[in-house]
Structures are given as C-alpha cells and as structure tokens.
Design goal:
The chain is an alpha/beta fold. The chain folds into 2 domains: 173 residues, Rossmann fold (3-Layer(aba) Sandwich), CATH 3.40.50; 201 residues, Up-down Bundle (Dehydroquinate synthase-like, alpha domain). A hairpin with a 4-residue loop joins strand 6 and strand 7. Helix 8 runs antiparallel to helix 9. It starts with 10 loop residues before the first strand and ends with a helix. 50% of the residues are buried. The structure holds 5,6-dihydroxy-NADP (NZQ) and zinc ion.
C-alpha cells in the first residue's frame, strides 16, 4: 500500500429512528439559532420536515429556514445562504436532503465565516482553510453521493460555466443522521441514478493504480457486488429495509475516504459529467451512466488486467477460453448491460443534449485528471461525447 494519513471527522448515527433518538442532543452544544436548509417539497410530503420541526421546537431552538436548494446547487444559492446565516447569526446549520443540500451547506458554512470570495479562494483552485466553518449537521434523505462523510462540495458557478468540487476535511459535517426509511419516498429514477453514482464512485477508485495486492481493491469488489445485488432487490421492492440500508451505507463507504486510501483515483468520468451537468443541468447519476461504458471502452486496453479482474470478481464471468483482452471487454459490456437492465439512459440525447449543444466547448472545459489508466486529451473526450450522443 502507498503511505497515507486517515481521519474522518463525521460522527454517524445510522438506522431506523436515529433522528428521533439523537437529533436533539446532537444540537445541544451549538446554541439557539439553527439554519434549517433543505431542497424542494420532498421533506414536507414524506413527513421528515414535521418530525424535525417538532424535535427542534421541543429543544427550544429558533429555526430559520433556508429552502429551495436545487439539484446541482449554484454559487448564488450558496451566497444567499451565507448571507442569511450571518444576518440571523446562525450557530449551526442543519441540512436535510441529498448531495445537493449537503454540498450547498458545506459551502455556506465556509462562506458564512469568510470575508473573501470563497469561489476564487477555495473552488477555482485548492486553498487552505485556516478558520472554523460554521458547524454543520446533516440528515441524509437519499443515497448516492456519500457527501455526509466527507468535506466534498460540488458547486456550479453559472457565470463562469464551471461545476467543480473540492474536498476540505474542515467541511466534514460534525454529525450525519442516516435513517434508511427516509429513503423509501425517493422516486425510483432517483434511487437508481443515485445507486449508479455509488457504483461510479467505487469504479472511479478501483480503476486506478497502484494495482499490487491491496485491501482497498478487495473492499471495493465486495462493495460493487453489494450495490448491484441490493439495487436489484430495491427495484423489486423499494421498501426492503435491508436493501435500502445496504445501499445507504455503501454510499457512505464509497466516499468516506476509506477505499481511496493508497489509490491514485481516476474520476475523469466525474469531470466530464460535471461539465455536462453545468451545460445541461442533467441528473448526475444519469450522466455517469451514459459516459461510463464508452469511457471504459476507451481505456480498457490500457487497464486490461484490472478490467478482467472486474469481469470475474464483480460480474462472475468465467475466464475460460478468453484472452485477457476479451475478458476485460466482457467486464465493460456486463456493466453496459446492467445499465440497460436498471433502465438508465445510454445516450446524451436522453439527457437533453441536442445538435445545437456545443460538445466541443464542454469537452474543452473538462479537467484532465492524472489517475486514469489512459490520460485523456480534450480531443478524446470530444470523441467520447460524440459516441455517447
Ligand atoms: O429537493 P427535494 O424536494 O428534496 O427532492 C430531491 C431532489 O429532487 C429528491 N429527494 C431527496 N431525498 C428524497 C427525495 N425525494 C423524495 N424523498 C426523499 N427522501 O431527490 C432529488 C435529487 O436530490 P439531490 O440532492 O440533487 O441528489 P444527489 O444526492 O444525487 O446529489 C447530486 C449532487 O451532488 C453532487 C452532484 O454533482 C450533484 O450536484 N455530488 C457530490 C459529491 C460529494 N459531495 O462528495 C460527489 C458526487 O460525485 C457528486 O458529484
Ligand atoms: Zn458522483
């Protein structure tokens, strides 16, 4: 294994009833005023809002609401949240939602305690956070990003046409409450695309060096099998507690830094998807589903040993009678078949891309990562986009 330092500052409370049991005492150390941040109407429809408001009222908290955090949260929304947090002198932020709410809250927590321009100093380029952001706690309502246990926040700067994420350990939530029953009401399409996001996070880490025998790769194979198995069960029965709890925890495990230990990580597909998302506002998991098989056909040859291991260990494909190349390709096609099976899109058209979309501009705006088995060029990214179209 490569050298590493590991820490995860988020304390997780997982399981049915955890919000009722722990929220009140978790907020106790933070003073009176709570900035309650959430997205659209989902928490009002499924009862989570009422449950949380009752707990906050009993705890005597002053609640200031910050609703309307959109999917693919924008820098403008972050700044509006930070301004409100300052005005009301919020002592803690409580975010209820999925990746978009959690990411937006992390950026608000920074901006509320920083006089400079957080985009310039922390998103445009990596910065050093030498101050304490406003404390943040989260209640997770959908599985996918794993944002609850890292410092990552992916923000869209509409003016600059850049969607980008940074992971600052200081932005890790102080606590994360994860009740799998809260995810029962997630629309089927979102459950599936979120689950594909989990799978993508694992694959983006798995398909990168070093490839010597290491614990991370073994954990990742088990996680990928678990996501595939449990997603199939959850599609059949969305209220299967075991399946939903496994998906929820797999989502955290994929992004709580554990599997990345000692790995270079790829994440080129995420770079491409983020820029597509910036131009089209497409769903994150759906964008990844379109890109992954095509990207992997491009890099398969360069990482054939690992792709053939993926074929046997994750998809149970027999190596008998196959060359390494054939086995590697069979692994990629098994992934493409799975994407079809679970009903995710396979073309950019399905995400709203049209003949008028400037794919070259999107390709040129993608960051090129160092960890891929085959380093991309902007020309090859454009080729991938065209093949996906
Ligand atoms: O807004 P509401 O009404 O709450 O509805 C949301 C939203 O429409 C709905 N939803 C969430 N929980 C629900 C529910 N509906 C019914 N019942 C529930 N219990 O789901 C929709 C999507 O929510 P969103 O938070 O946007 O989805 P997701 O969790 O996939 O987050 C996507 C964002 O996270 C970023 C993505 O780029 C994207 O901006 N990512 C963040 C990462 C991180 N911080 O580590 C890593 C990821 O790779 C990703 O890039
Ligand atoms: Zn993702």
């Amino acid at each position: 294994m490569n050298n590493f330092i590991f820490e995860n500052a988020t304390k997780v409370y997982f399981g049915k009833g955890c919000v009722k049991e722990y929220l009140s005492c978790l907020l106790e150390p933070y003073g009176d005023t709570v900035l309650l941040a959430y997205g659209g109407e989902s928490i009002k429809k499924n009862g989570v809002y009422d449950e949380v408001m009752a707990i906050l009222a009993r705890a005597g908290k002053t609640v200031v609401e910050f609703p309307g955090i959109m999917s693919n949260p924008t820098y403008k929304k972050v700044m509006a949240g930070a301004q409100l947090a300052r005005e009301v002198q919020a002592k803690v932020i409580l975010g209820i939602g999925g990746g978009s709410v959690m990411d937006c809250c992390k950026a608000i927590a920074l901006a509320a305690r920083y006089d400079g321009d957080i985009w310039n100093d922390f998103w445009e380029r990596p910065g050093v956070i030498d101050f304490e952001p406003l404390p943040l706690g989260v209640i997770v309502t959908t599985a996918g990003t794993g944002s609850e246990c890292n410092g990552g926040a992916v923000i869209t700067n509409e003016d600059k046409k850049i969607k980008t994420g940074r992971d600052y350990p200081k932005c890790n939530p102080k606590f994360a409450l994860m009740d799998p029953t809260y995810t029962y009401s997630v629309p089927q399409k979102q459950m599936i695309s979120g689950s594909f996001d989990i799978l993508s996070h694992i694959m983006e880490t798995y398909f990168s060096g070093p490839d010597e025998d290491n614990v991370s790769d073994d954990i990742m194979e088990a996680l990928m099998r678990s996501v595939i198995r449990n997603l199939r069960i959850a599609i059949g029965n969305p209220q299967d507690y075991t399946a939903r709890s496994n998906l929820m925890w797999a989502s955290t495990m994929a992004e709580n830094r554990i599997i990345k230990l000692g790995k270079k990580c790829d994440f080129e597909c995420h770079q491409m998807e983020h820029q597509l998302g910036d131009y089209t506002d497409c769903n994150h998991g759906c964008g990844l589903a379109v890109l992954h098989p095509v990207y992997y056909r491009h890099i398969c040859e360069a990482g054939k040993e690992k792709f053939s291991r993926f074929a046997t260990e994750v998809w149970g494909i027999s190596p008998e009678g196959k060359t390494t190349e054939e086995l590697a390709r069979a692994g990629v096609e098994a992934l493409a078949d799975f994407i079809k099976e679970i009903g995710l899109p396979a073309t950019l058209r399905e995400l709203g891309v049209t003949e008028e979309t400037d794919l070259k501009a999107i390709a040129d705006s993608c960051a090129i990562v160092p960890g891929s088995y085959k380093k991309m060029t902007h020309e090859e990214i454009l080729e991938i986009f065209k093949e996906c179209f």
